[in-house]
Amino acid sequence: MTSVSACVLSAAFPWFGMDIGGTLVKLVYFEPKDITAEEEQEEVENLKSIRRYLTSNTAYGKTGIRDVHLELKDLTMCGRTGNLHFIRFPTHDLPAFLQMGRNKHFSSLHTTLCATGGGAYKFESDFRTMADLQLHKLDELDCLIRGVVHINSVVSGGLSECYYFENPTDPDRCVQRPYTLENPYPLLLVNIGSGVNFLAVYSESEYKRVSGTSLGGGTFLGLCCLLTGCSTFEEALEMASRGESARVDKLVRDIYGGDYERFGLPGWAVASSFGNMMFKEKRESVSKEDLARATLVTITNNIGSITKLCALNENIERVVFVGNFLRVNTLSMKQLAYAMDYWSKGQLKALFLQHEGYFGAVGALLGLLHPAAS
Amino acid sequence: MAECVRLNSSTSSHTMDKSITLPPDEIFRNLENAKRFAIDIGGSLTKLAYYSTVQHKVAKVRSFDHSAKEAAGDRLYEISVQEEVTARLHFIKFENAYIETCLDFIKDHLVNTDTKVIKATGGGAHKFKELIERKLGLKVDKEDEMTCLIKGCNFVLRNIPREAFVYAKHADSEFRFQTTQPDIFPYLLVNIGSGVSIVKVESEDKFERIGGSSIGGGTFWGLGALLTKTKRFDELLQLASKGQHTSVDMLVKDIYGGSYGSLGLTGDLIASSFGKSATADKEFSKEDMAKSLLHMISNDIGQLACLYAKLHNLSRVYFGGFFIRGHPVTMHTITYSINFFTKARPPKNKRTPSMSMTATLNYRINTTKKNPTNVHNPNQYSWGENYAGSSGLMSVSPDMNPMQRARSGTFDMLEMDRLERQLVNLPLLQDPSSYIPDTMDLTEDALAREYWLYCFEEALDGVVKRAVASQPDMPQAVERAEKFRQKYRHKLQTLRHQPFAYGSLTVRSLLDTREHCLNEFNFPDPYSKIKQKENDIALKYYQKAMKSLEELTWEERQFALVRGVLAGNVFDWGAKAVSDVLESDPEFGFEEAKRQLEERPWLVDSYDQWLERLKGPPHKCALFFVDNSGVDIILGVIPFVRELLSRGTEVVLASNSGPALNDVTNGELQILTERIAAMDPVIQAGLREDRLTLVQSGSSSPCLDLSRLDKVLAMVVRERQTDLVIIEGMGRAIHTNYYAMLSCESLKMAVIKNSWLADRLGGKLFSVVFKYEVPAGKPSQNSAALTPS
Questions:
Q1: What is the pLDDT of residues A192-210, one digit of tens each?
Q2: Which residues of A touch B311 (CB under 8 A)?
Q3: Is the Cα dihedral B357, B360, B361, B366 positive or negative?
Q4: What's the gap in Å between the CA of A48 and the closest CA on chain B?
Q5: Which pTM does this prediction carry?
Q6: CATH second-level architecture of A15-145+359-369?
Q7: Stretch(es) of chain A classified as CATH 3.30.420.510
Q8: CATH fold of the domain at B436-521
C-alpha cells in the first residue's frame, strides 16, 4: 500500500486529525520529534503547552484516554519525523474539549483543523462559536479508506498492523497471527462503530458503500445499558465475558433436539436470539452477564451474516473488520472469524487491524497534509 | 433429560391461566363432519386445519314433461332444493395457551372422523405430542416443517386471489393486494417465526433453505419482555404502535445534524438502533423501546431478504409467519427497508440483477401452514375462500378498533370450499399476469367504499325479505334469514373499520360475501321463484318480439338488437333503483325499459364502429357472458345471439354454475333454450348443429373473474377459435372487467342502474355503456371496406 499525493510542506503545527462519531471522538496527534532549535525558538507558548499536555498525560479530564499501546513512534510524515498519538473521548464530552481548546487559546495558532465523521457537520458551528475554530470537513468514508491504506503502508516490522485468527473454529487452538496485507484489493471493509458500514474497496481511491446496518456497537452498548444497568462499553464487555448466551437464546437443538440435518443447521446454532426470554421463568433465571453476552453474540452474528452476504454479492473473499466496537473485544473478533470461516466453508478470511477505530482520524490528518487527495 | 423437564415446565405455565368457553358455532365449525386433521404448533401460536364435508342445500331446476298437459299449471320448470355434499377446509389460529381447551372441545365434538392420525408440524409438535395423543386418541404423525410451509404457501398463493399484498403506509390504501399469478415461481419466502428462515422456492417440490437469521419474532418477544416487562406478544406490538423510536435510536441527524448528503442518507435514517440508550442515567418509555426494537428487527429482516434476493437473482419476496400478523408497523418497516435497500444501491456491476422487488407480505400463510397430503392432493381442485366463515385480516392499528384487535389475538379463522371444478384463466386475456377483474378498489377509494357499504346495508332488508319469501314452507326461514342479516351486517361493519379484512374490498367481494352468507343459512337461491315467473312471462313475448325484429331493415335491426340487450338488462333485481321499480310496478315492461334508455350518443358509445364491423365478415365464434333471467336473457340476449348465428358465427353462452341474485344459471338456461328452440328454427338448428353451445362459467357470483373460469369453458373457447367476447351487465362489464384487455375483439354492454355510479362516471341513471374494442395491433376487419351484406 502506498500513499501518493504530494505533501503540503507549509502545513503548520499542530497536526491533528479528528473523527467525530456518534459515540466517540477519535483524535490523532502528530508530535514532531525533529524540532530544530530554531523552530523551538519560534514555537509559540500555546503550541508548546498543547504538545506537553497531550504527550505527558494518558488521560484527559474524566473520560479522555490516550491509547499508548497504539502510539506509532518515529514515523515520517511529510518529511517530518515524530510520534503519532491516538486519543479518544466520548462525543457527549465534546463541549468540555471545546472549552479546553478555548482555554488553551487554540484558535490563536491559526491552524486548520481537519475533521471527519458526522460530528464535523453537526458541531461545526459549536467549534466556531465556542472555540473560534474553523473546521475543514472531510468525508468519513474517504478518510476511513485513506487511513487504512496509510497505516498499513507505514507500519511494518515487529508489530504487524493486520492480523487474523488461526483455527477460528477450534476454540482451543484459535490464536492471533500477523497477516501481511499485500495486494489487498478487492476487499470488503466493515467499519463497526455505533452503526455499521460495509464498503467494497477496489483500490486506494475506488470504493463503494454496499450496505449498512443500524445494529452496531451503539446497539450493543445501548441494549446492555437497558438490560444490565451498566454504563460503559468496558463494563458491558466485561460482563459479557462472564456470561453464557445459550441460556438466553433459543438454539436449534432447543427446537429440534439436535441438528436440523436437512438444512445443515448445527444444534448449537442460534435459532432465535433472546428466544428463551419469551418465558417468564427463564427470564428470571438468567444473569445480567448472560444478557450482556447474548447481546454481544446477537449483534456480532448479525454483522457476520450481512458481511457474508455482501462479500458473496460483491464477489470478494477478503474482509477487513475495523471500528471501535472491536476495541478490546476479542470475543466478537473471534466470533466473526469463526462465522466467516464456518458459513463460507473456509472461503472468506476475516482480517483485523490494530488501530481498529482510528482510521477515520488518520485519514483526516492526511487530509491536512495531502489536501489534493481529498 | 434436563431439556424435557424444562419444556414441560414451560408447557404447564402456558396452559394454566387460560380457561375459555368456546362459541362452537363460530370457531370449530362443522367439527362433527371433520375427516382429517393437521396441526402446526409454533413457539407461540397453534394453527389447526381440518378437512370436513359440508352438506348444504342447492337449488336445482328440472324441466316438466310438457307432453303431460301442463300438469303444474303454467310453470316452465320445477324448482327443487337438494342436499349436496362438498369439501371444505377449515383453518383456525389461536395462541398456544388455549391448546388444551381446544383439544377438549374437539374431542367432545368429534364423531364422524375416519382417521386415526393427526398430521403435525412445527417446533411445538414434539412438545405437545403426548397431550394431543392423550386428548384426541389420535396418533401424531410428524411432518417436516419446511415442506409443510412451502406446500401451504404454494396452495394459498394459487387459491386465494388476494392472499398476497404489498403494504404502503402512506398511500391512500395501506394494503395493495396482488392478484393470483398463473406462474408463482420462483420466489423467496421469508418466514418469520421465532427466528427467520429464508427459502428459495423454485417449483411445487423444489425448494432450498438458503439462509436465515436468529433475529426474528422470538427476539422481539424475548428482548421486548426484558426491556418493557410486558409479557404478551400482542401487548408488545401495541406498545410499539404507540412509541417513538427516535428517542431511543441514534439517527443520522443525531450524528450529522442533518442528512449525510454524499451517501444519500437522510437525517431520519437510523444510524444506530438503541444508540441513544447507551447511558445509565436516563429513563426510556416502554412504548419507545418496543417501537425501536420492532424497527430494528423489521429493518434487519428486510435487509437480509434483499441481500438474499439479490444473491439468488429473485424478484419476488413473500414475507410470512406469525411476526407479521398483519401488523402495520412491522409491515411498513419491512417494506420501507426493502425499498430502501433496493433503491439505495447504486446501479453498477455486471452481477447485479435488475431488481423489481415487490415486498409482498402475506397475511394468512401462517394460518394455512398445513399439510396438504392430508386432503387427497388438493392441487387437483380449485378452492375458494368462503367469506362467510372466515374472520379476515384483523390486525390493524389498535387505536382504531381495540375490540377486534383483542379478538384477533385469540382466534382467527379461514374457510375454503372445494369447488367442483378446476378454475383457469380465460385464454383470451391479453396479459393474465396483470389482469385485475375489479374496476374499482374500494380499499383505495374511501368515497366509493362509503357509498357501497351504505348501499349494501340499505339493501339488506330487501334481501332478507326476499330470502324469507323464497321459502314459504321451509322451517325456520324467518329465523335463518334473521341470522343471515346479523352475519352480513356484522361483516359490513367489520369492513367499515377494516376495508382490507378480506383482501381488496370491491363491489364483487361485497356481493360474493352476501351470497356466501345466504348459502350459509340455507338460502341457496332466494330468487328462484322470481326468476321462474319472469322467464315464463318473457317466453310468452318471444315470438312476437322476433316477428317485429324481422320486419326491420338490416341496419335498423342491428340497432334494435343492441337496444334490446340493453333494455333487457334494465331488468335486474341486483340494482337498487330497479328493484324499487320492479317491486312497486310489476307491469314495468320491456317497451317501458327501452324508453328509459338514454338516447345516443351514449355515455360510452362505439356503436358506429360495431355496426361497421358487422358489415364485414362474420366472427368465427362469439363467447357471450350472460346476466339476468327473464326479459334480459330471453328478449335481449337470445335475439342478439340468433342474429350472430344467422351471420354464421358460432356462439358459446356462458352462464353461472350456481345461483346469484336473479342471474340466469346454466341449469335454467338449458331449459330456456330448449323451449325457445321449440319455437324458433334458427335456435333449434344452432343447438342441433352444435353451433350454439351452453357452458357454465364456474362462478356463482353476480360479477365475473376472467382468471377463474371453468376449465371446460376455456377448452371450448380455444377449440372454437373464439374471436369475439361479449360481456353484459353491470356486475360483469362495469364493476368488473370494464378495463379488461382481451386479445380478441370484445363488446361490453351495460346500463348504469345506480345513480351514484352513473354520477361518478359522468352520466345519469340508465346511461348506456357500449364499449366495442379491438386489441391494438389487430386492425379491425372492417378496414377492408366491405359493402353491406
A1: 999 999 999 999 889 999 9
A2: 309, 312-313
A3: negative
A4: 32
A5: 0.69
A6: 2-Layer Sandwich (3.30)
A7: 15-145+359-369
A8: AF1104-like (1.20.1700)
